[in-house]
Amino acid sequence: MSGHFEPLPGGGASVALDDVEISIIRSLAVQLVELIGPGPAAQAPDDPLAELFAEGPSEPPADPVLRRLFPDAYGDPGASAPAEGAEQRRAHSAEFRRFTENDLRAGKRENALAVIRSLDGLAVAGGGGAVLELSAEESRQWLGALNDLRLAIGSRLQIDDEDDTDLLFHLPDEDPRKPMVMAYLWLGGLQETLVSTLMP
After folding, report:
1. Three-class DSSP category at 36
2. Are 104 and 67 in contact (CB under 8 A)?
3. 46: three-class secondary structure by DSSP
4. Which of 103, 109, 120, 127 has the alpha carbon at shortest distance from 22?
5. pLDDT tens digits for range 30-72
6. 41: part of which helix (H) or strand (E)?
């Protein structure tokens, strides 16, 4: 079972992870939570309705990873688009972002926190590994978090399409990007096997 998810009877999935794999996934998930940042409720904890009525940002994030995680709804108006209509697309994207980004951030944050919680709840055996068992709902949260982690790493590696991924297979071992590439590919394998457990 090591290295890939397998379906559990009645839904959910399981995977055997060693202590290094647990540490890597947990560390990446913590970094993702920090990158996404706190929600509006963290800024106004005394007002339970503040988050419900809080408007999000209308401009895309400056960080390229966050721009990848929270892209413009109507595409990048400046990227190879005809000049006519670019201003309208920009306005529509800003409006859409203003009313959706806070919820999207909350969902991505909760998925990453679910990963952290489930890893923290593992009892690591004396051999340095454990079997993680996820419910169907936890599997969906893990799937979302794995996807976000791969998008984040892919953004840092400047992976835009499948051709870029093929080039990464041939990086020399001394290339400083090699550990990130290995994490990217490994998370992709986990994600693929998790998807297969969720399919009917």
Report:
1. helix
2. no
3. coil
4. 120
5. 999 999 998 655 445 566 666 556 677 778 888 999 999 998 8
6. helix 40-43
